[in-house]
Structure formats: structure tokens, C-alpha cells
């Protein structure tokens, strides 16, 4: 049974030891347990919180919002660790606050570049499938029996108050290898329940009820979880993603530039934007499009732009972090996603003072944007509908300003300072129940 009260926070040398435990030929070090003193009046002013992330060194909305949340929690005086299942590069795509401890369970870089040198047994395990692979739950690299063992060892020796999983595959690792009663286990969902196919739903149905809390990023998804798991009641909570206020002044909305950002995959619908702009290019000869991001569809998008005679007006410069300066130079944000669990990029563009045109897809866009009030909503995958909405903004500076001003007000609701209290409330609630 968890008992939260007086304890000494984990020291830096303990964290370093935890990261070494997955090294070649090493036994898991003995982790000094915190000494808990029971009290009927718990104080949660200093919690130890550990986030489990597939790869904190990469790029994506889940990574960005996890870092935003972690920094906000540190600002409140909590002790925060991010356990990254893998590390694949020397520098992260997003800056990591030095007050946040980062533990890498497996450094997959080549040994000459700082990565882990594997033993023969570990090399064999790295080629064997993970327990996740049977149902194709994980679609990212490095999934293997070796990673399973590293995660298991970490979770079995972890000394913390709250463990937070950040996606379904991570949550299932937590369900399989975590220690109920040693720490609270919170499953965050950055997708939405209806998205998951039967093999994944089977695991969710089996394992999620055992978590101390399930946290969704939209009210619609929280409602879906409550319908699927009525017995969980108030264990299900909604806490939206957060994004810091832009450090730059808002865009002046005078540059003839449409901008978007995201993974260059079918989900993000960048091809719809390219085709929509093709309908507008002759009418608005000064306007251009910038699409920031990386992904498997980059070459296809470049080829499509060239085919439509727009190679010199549609730019795909790759990923840039942070994007604040780029948003400031644009006048319209276009988010043509085919589905969007939340849409952090929507809030990011609003915070920078841009009017947003977005696909009317569940769940995030429909909870963030009120059509015609703080943005424009259009059907997904319809270039002609997206072109019509863009035309309204391109031809009407006053409408751009009206929607941009309303969008900035909306974005303030998602600043970490406004959202972090809801995370803290979830953590305090589960710890209080355990105490």
C-alpha cells in the first residue's frame, strides 16, 4: 500500500545508478528505498514523478507536451524524471530543462558515438520480438526482447511516487512490469479510444482498469473511456495538452505566407493543403506555403507540388524547433489533418497570433475551435473546402485579425500554468487514496 508523506527525494547519484543498471553485464544496483512515515494528513508539496516515454530525444506532440508538463511540475517544486526507453541521437529535438532528470534505458547509438556496447546475449535479445509485437501494438523501432528486459528491470527497481505512461505501448509496459502498491500508476492517452483496433483494444480492456488513473487529452475521449469502463468512475480524468506562451510578439499577419507543421504522413493530410493551394495560386500570386516537419511522405509531397507547377511556391524545409520565429513570419496556419487526437500545433499557431484553418475531425479540433469565432473548420480531405476557407482569410485582413485575436485568447487556456494544476490534482488524488 502506498503511503505518501515524509521522505527524502531521490538524489542525482541514484538516478545515474538507475541509468547504469541497463548496461552490458551489469546487475541491477540496489536502489535505496524512501522511508515513508504514515500520517492522516498527507502533504503533496513535493512529489516524485516519473514519466515513461518511448524516445524523449525525438520529435512529436507527445514529446513536446510531456516536456512542457514536466517543466511546469518542476516549477512547482516537484522532482521530475523522464525515463526514455531509447536514445538515438546526441542532442534532443526539443530543449530539455536541466532541472528534469533524464534516464535512458537503452542508448541505441553506435558505441563509437556514445551508445551502449551490447554483450552477445543482448545482441541476440535485440533480435527477438517484444511481447508487444504479437499484436503489432508498437510501430516504432527498437521494440525487442532486450528492450522488454530493460524496461522490466527499471520498473522493478524504480523508487518514485507516481509513474506516468504517455502512450498505449508504454502503458502496457507499465501494466506488465510495474509494481502496483510501490508507486501510483497513471496511464496517459495521447490518441483516442475509438482509434484502436481490436488487438490493441483487447489489451486496453484487460489492463487499463488496473491503473490508478487514466488521463485523456479531450473531454470526448474521457467520455468514451467512461462508457467503456463505467466501473472506473472518477479514475478517468481529462487534462489537455499544454503549450507555453510564445516568447515573441504575435504575427503582424502581413506576410503572404501559409504555414503548417507536423509529421509528413497520411494522417496529417499535407497533400490536401498542396492541392488546395493549387486552386488558389493563380488568384493569389504573391502567396506561398511552408510545410515544416519530417516523415515518409516528404518526397511525394515535393513531387506533387512540382506536378502542380508549385515547386517554387511550396517549401518543405524539414523540422525546425522551436517554431516561434517561423509562426511569427506567417499570416495563416493551415492544419489539414485527416484525424487529430488533440492538435497541439493548433494551439501553438494560435499562441503565435495566427488565424487557424483546420479539419473538423475528432477530437481535439472540435474542442479547441469554434467555427467562425476563433478559427475556421473544414471537412477533412477536401481540397476545395480548404481552398475556400483559405481564400476567405487570404482576401480579408480584418477577418485574419479577428480570428487571430480570438485564437490568442483560446491559447491562454492551454498554457502550462493553467493546465499543470489538473495534473497535480490527479496525482494527489491517487496518492491520497493509497495513503
Keywords:
disordered N terminus, Rossmann fold, 435 residues, seven-stranded parallel β-sheet, globular, 2 domains, alpha/beta, six-stranded parallel β-sheet
Task: Kindly describe this structure.
- By secondary structure, this protein is an alpha/beta fold.
- It folds into 2 domains: about 10-35 and about 40-240 and about 415-435, Rossmann fold (3-Layer(aba) Sandwich); about 255-410, 3-Layer(aba) Sandwich (Rossmann fold), CATH 3.40.50.2000.
- Helix content is about 35%, strand content about 15%.
- The protein has 15 helices and 13 strands.
- The protein has helices at about 10-20, 60-75, 120-125, 145-155, 170-175, 200-205, 220-230, 270-280, 300-305, 325-330, 345-350, 365-370, 385-395, 395-410, 415-435, and strands at about 50-55, 80-85, 100-105, 160-165, 185-190, 215, 235-240, 255-260, 290, 315-320, 330-335, 355-360, 375-380.
- The protein has a 7-stranded parallel sheet with strand order 3-2-1-4-5-6-7, with helices on both faces.
- α4 (about 145-155) packs across α5 (about 170-175), α5 (about 170-175) packs across α6 (about 200-205) and α8 crosses α13.
- The longest helix has 19 residues, at about 415-435.
- The chain starts with 11 loop residues before the first helix and ends with a helix.
- Residues about 1-40 have low confidence and may be disordered.
Amino acid at each position: 500500500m502506498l503511503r505518501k508523506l515524509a521522505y527524502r527525494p531521490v538524489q542525482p547519484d541514484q538516478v545515474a545508478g538507475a541509468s547504469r543498471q541497463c548496461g552490458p553485464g551489469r546487475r541491477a544496483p540496489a536502489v535505496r528505498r524512501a522511508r515513508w512515515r504514515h500520517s492522516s494528513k498527507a502533504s503533496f508539496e513535493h512529489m516524485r514523478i516519473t514519466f515513461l516515454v518511448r524516445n524523449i530525444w525525438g520529435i512529436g506532440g507527445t514529446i513536446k507536451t510531456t516536456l512542457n508538463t514536466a517543466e511546469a511540475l518542476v516549477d512547482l517544486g516537484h522532482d521530475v524524471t523522464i525515463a526514455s526507453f531509447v536514445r538515438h541521437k546526441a542532442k534532443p529535438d526539443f530543449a530539455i530543462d536541466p532541472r528534469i532528470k533524464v534516464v535512458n534505458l537503452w542508448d541505441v547509438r553506435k558505441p563509437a558515438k556514445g551508445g551502449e556496447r551490447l554483450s552477445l546475449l543482448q545482441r541476440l535479445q535485440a533480435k527477438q520480438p517484444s511481447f508487444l509485437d504479437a499484436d503489432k501494438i508498437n510501430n516504432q523501432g527498437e521494440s525487442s526482447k532486450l528492450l522488454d528486459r530493460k524496461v522490466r528491470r527499471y520498473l522493478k527497481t524504480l523508487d518514485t511516487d507516481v509513474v506516468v505512461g504517455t502512450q498505449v505501448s508504454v502503458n502496457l509496459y507499465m501494466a506488465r512490469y510495474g509494481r502496483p502498491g510501490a508507486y501510483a500508476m497513471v496511464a496517459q492517452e495521447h490518441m483516442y479510444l475509438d482509434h484502436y483496433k481490436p488487438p490493441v483494444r483487447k489489451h486496453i480492456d484487460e489492463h487499463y482498469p488496473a491503473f490508478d488513473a487514466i488521463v485523456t487529452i479531450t473531454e470526448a475521449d474521457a467520455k468514451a473511456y467512461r462508457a467503456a469502463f463505467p466501473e472506473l468512475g472518477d479514475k478517468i480524468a481529462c487534462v489537455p495538452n499544454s503549450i507555453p506562451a510564445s516568447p515573441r510578439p504575435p504575427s503582424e499577419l502581413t506576410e503572404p505566407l501559409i504555414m503548417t507543421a507536423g509529421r509528413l504522413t497520411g494522417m496529417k493530410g499535407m497533400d490536401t493543403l498542396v492541392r488546395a493551394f493549387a486552386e488558389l495560386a493563380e488568384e493569389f500570386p504573391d502567396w506561398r506555403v511552408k510545410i515544416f516537419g519530417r516523415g515518409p511522405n516528404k518526397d511525394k509531397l515535393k513531387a506533387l507540388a512540382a506536378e502542380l507547377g508549385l515547386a517554387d511556391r511550396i517549401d518543405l524545409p524539414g523540422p525546425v524547433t522551436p517554431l516561434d520565429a517561423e509562426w511569427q513570419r506567417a499570416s495563416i496556419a493551415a492544419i489539414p489533418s485527416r484525424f487529430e487526437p488533440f492538435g497541439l500545433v493548433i494551439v501553438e499557431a494560435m499562441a503565435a497570433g495566427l488565424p487557424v484553418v483546420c479539419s473538423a475531425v475528432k477530437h481535439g479540433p472540435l474542442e479547441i475551435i469554434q467555427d467562425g469565432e476563433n478559427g475556421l473548420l473544414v471537412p477533412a480531405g477536401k481540397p476545395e473546402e480548404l481552398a475556400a476557407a483559405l481564400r476567405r482569410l487570404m482576401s480579408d485582413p480584418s477577418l485574419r485579425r479577428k480570428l487571430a485575436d480570438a485564437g490568442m485568447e483560446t491559447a491562454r487556456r492551454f498554457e502550462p500554468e493553467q493546465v499543470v494544476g489538473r495534473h497535480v490534482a490527479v496525482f494527489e488524488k491517487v496518492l491520497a487514496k493509497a495513503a
